[in-house]
Design brief:
The protein is of the alpha/beta class. The protein folds into 2 domains: 28-113, 3-Layer(aba) Sandwich (Rossmann fold); 139-272, NAD(P)-binding Rossmann-like Domain (Rossmann fold). 39% of the residues lie in helices and 17% in strands. The chain has 10 helices and 11 strands. The strands form 3 sheets. It has a 6-stranded parallel sheet with strand order 1-11-8-7-5-6. Strand 5, helix 7 (170-178) and strand 6 (187-191) form a beta-alpha-beta unit. The chain starts with a strand and ends with a helix. The model has no long low-confidence stretch (mean pLDDT 95).
Length: 290
């Protein structure tokens, strides 16, 4: 069994990006500038956004963190987005999800200029991705593709099962892996809560990508020997033995499934670090396009 080490791979990608940024500066070009907007004081969101800001500094990006009160109106947030859309010095920006209940996330995503949508969530970018046109690929699916490519895991002709159909991970990765691309050409089945007899399907899979947010959902008796496992899920559960009194658990029963897998991502340290790395890669792409 080989660990798909997202932490190490992410570090490699960040070093590559840092070298490109150095080259831009040598040629008297501006460094990429990423802006992150966070609304309210969601602990997990704050931790995640701070990690993004830290990663920007590491690779030589300019970064700006905009913290807004949770009481902000939807229109006020859209006004702030329009200001960023029109700021030529900003290459890309993200609005950290989830947002407070009184704000419609769809309206916010629609307000972002697709050319600065480095999260890859705008319908224009999703549409281009679906047609296999150059665009920003959503960061988590992009990270999965990169991880599979760098570990030289063959996808062409393979039977891939995706568990979970979210617009952020499950649906886009199912489309991408079925496309004609280096990491693609797979036969993909997208499964979800209405799928009948899921274990029968997963036992046929060469590669399984799980993105449910249900701790330890995928068990060893649901997979075959030699399967490749990509665990996107990450859930905090109480653990009094830990200093911070919680631990992070994925959607896969790692202890048992890892004994049958040929490759598997750990949680934490698998897909999570790759998501931030690919956000940086999208921001660099946005800068170079300009």
């Amino acid at each position: 069994m080989v660990l798909l080490d997202g932490k190490k791979t992410s570090a490699d990608i960040r070093k590559e990006i840092a070298l490109e940024v150095e080259e831009l500066k040598k040629n008297n070009k501006k460094a990429p500038h990423l802006v992150a907007i966070i609304v309210g004081n969601n602990g997990a969101s704050i931790t995640y956004v701070n990690a993004k800001v830290k990663a920007c500094k590491e690779v030589g990006f300019e970064s700006t963190l905009i913290e807004l009160p949770k009481e902000i109106s939807e229109q006020e947030l859209i006004n702030k987005i329009n200001t960023l859309n029109n700021d030529k010095f900003i290459d890309g920006f993200i609005v950290q999800l989830p947002l407070p209940e009184h704000i419609n996330e769809e309206n916010i995503i629609m307000a972002i200029n697709p050319d600065k949508d480095v999260d890859g969530f705008h319908p224009t970018n999703i549409g281009k991705m679906t047609l296999n046109l150059p665009t920003f690929i959503p960061a988590t699916p992009f990270g999965i593709l990169e991880l599979l490519e760098r570990y030289k895991i063959e996808t062409s002709g393979k039977n891939v099962i995706v568990i979970g159909r979210s617009n952020i991970v499950g649906t886009p990765i199912s489309i991408l892996l079925g496309q004609k691309r280096n990491v693609g050409n797979a036969t993909v089945t997208l499964t979800h809560s209405r799928t009948v007899d899921l274990p029968k399907i997963t036992k046929q899979a060469d590669i399984i990508i799980v993105a449910l947010g249900v701790p330890n959902f995928l068990k060893a008796d649901m997979v075959k020997e030699g399967v490749v496992i990509v665990d996107v899920g990450i859930t905090r559960v109480e653990d009094t033995s830990k200093k911070n009194r919680f631990k992070l658990i994925g959607d896969v029963d790692f202890k048992e499934v890892s004994q049958k897998a040929s490759y598997i991502t750990p949680v934490p340290g698998g897909v999570g670090p790759m998501t931030i790395a690919m956000l940086l890669k999208n921001t660099l792409l946005a800068c170079k396009r300009k």
